[in-house]
User: Which sequence fits this backbone?
């Protein structure tokens, strides 16, 4: 199925202004260098404005400052990237995870299903589950006892939602993600591991999106909490009792240890490692591959790790790192000698 929008439609969606023929129809968003007739593209960086004259797109979304350079129809918007996101949503034809209730789905007799719920093949919905209006459950999903999913939330295939997990409205969970599995809680008795039952749960707010193959552990005593409007990438590990604040974004491969609190509107780069039992304040940006060992109490940009070097350079750097303690002792000795001489 193809969705077609006129430029007048797009102007309404984006809050922009059409400069050109507003009856022109587009069916796809494309990159500027590959866009052709029937496509709409966008310009987010002024340094690429020189390519506007060559664009074969039916229309371009851009800022007013670059509009005069455009050789085709233009839609002037405040933020072309936001406009691109909204138009891409409007033109999106991705299929739903399920379109009906499959005969092979196993649904407990006391599960409560809202209106227009869809459940894919071989999915299991256990006792006490509540699914809000418009919830879509993909094939082979498991929703455990007492779990609650808010209206219009979607699970792609093979997602596992453990017992008593609560997920809000308009959430999206990609394939193979696990929410509510046991946190990593054990005591050691003379070399033998004694499992600690994880009796908390996971509470997820509204408009949260979670990537594929991500694991979010249930709390040990209290709950693991993810607030509204959070976006989590693929292959994250969120440990027990972690609390993630409103509007935070975390890129793929990040690991967050237990009982850490991350504030609102934080941005955490891919493959970051965050220690447990610490707190990160609102508005912190952590670059990729960073290792966060202590609480962050001031808003700002933080980085760690060693940038890529040739192997020869890296070996020298590593050798110097191993000598830091000795160098520090020698420096302190020199400082002490200088102080004595000055006295």
Assistant:
């Amino acid at each position: 199925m193809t969705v077609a929008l006129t430029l007048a439609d797009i102007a309404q969606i984006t809050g922009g202004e059409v400069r050109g023929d507003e009856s022109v129809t587009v069916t796809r968003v494309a990159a500027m260098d590959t866009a052709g007739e029937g496509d709409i593209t966008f310009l987010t960086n002024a340094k690429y404005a020189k390519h506007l004259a060559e664009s074969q797109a039916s229309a371009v979304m851009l800022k007013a400052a670059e509009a005069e350079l455009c050789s085709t129809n233009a839609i002037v918007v405040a933020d072309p990237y936001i406009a691109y996101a909204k138009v891409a949503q409007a033109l999106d034809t991705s299929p739903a995870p399920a379109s009906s209730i499959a005969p092979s789905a196993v649904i407990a007799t006391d599960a409560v299903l809202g209106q227009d719920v869809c459940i894919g093949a071989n999915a299991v919905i256990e006792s006490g589950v509540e699914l809000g209006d418009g919830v879509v459950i993909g094939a082979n999903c498991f929703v455990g006892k007492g779990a609650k999913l808010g209206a219009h939330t979607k699970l792609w295939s093979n997602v596992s939602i453990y017992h008593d997990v609560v997920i809000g409205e308009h959430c999206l969970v990609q394939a193979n993600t696990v929410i509510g599995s046991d946190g990593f809680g054990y005591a050691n008795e003379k070399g033998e591991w004694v499992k600690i039952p994880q009796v908390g749960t996971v509470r997820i707010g509204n408009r949260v999106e979670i990537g594929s193959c991500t694991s979010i552990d249930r709390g040990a005593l209290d709950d693991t909490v993810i607030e509204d409007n959070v976006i989590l990438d693929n292959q994250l590990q969120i440990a027990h009792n972690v609390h993630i604040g409103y509007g935070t974004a975390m890129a793929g491969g990040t690991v967050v240890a237990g009982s850490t609190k991350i504030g609102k509107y934080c941005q955490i780069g891919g493959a970051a490692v965050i220690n447990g039992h610490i707190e990160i304040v609102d508005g912190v940006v952590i670059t990729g591959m960073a290792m966060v060992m202590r609480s962050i109490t001031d808003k700002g940009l933080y980085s760690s790790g060693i940038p890529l070097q040739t192997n020869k350079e890296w070996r020298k750097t590593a050798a110097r790192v191993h000598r830091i303690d000795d160098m520090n002792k020698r420096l302190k000795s020199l400082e002490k000698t200088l102080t004595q001489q000055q006295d």
Notes: The mean pLDDT is 96.
